[in-house]
């Protein structure tokens, strides 16, 4: 079962590739706020408090790969 939506996965794949929120927004054609919302939604789903914790948990769950 997948935890991330397709868009959330795109956002986190770019985030771990060291792109900023602003760069991710431009690449995906969405607003900075929407990018931050996707990140916040994932953190809520995972029950973590920060982006770094979210990345660690997503790697552990095999949702994203480095």
Core attributes:
66 residues, mainly alpha, Arc Repressor Mutant, subunit A, 67% helix
Would you kindly provide a written description of the structure presented here, covering whatever features stand out?
This protein has 66 residues and is an all-alpha fold. The protein has a single domain, classed as Arc Repressor Mutant, subunit A, CATH 1.10.10. It contains 4 helices and no strands. Helix 1 crosses helix 3, helix 2 packs across helix 3 and helix 3 crosses helix 4. It is globular, with a radius of gyration of 11 Å. InterPro entries: Sig_transdc_resp-reg_C-effctor, Tscrpt_reg_LuxR_C, WH-like_DNA-bd_sf. This is Helix-turn-helix transcriptional regulator. Keywords: DNA-binding, Transcription, Transcription regulation. It holds the Pfam family GerE.
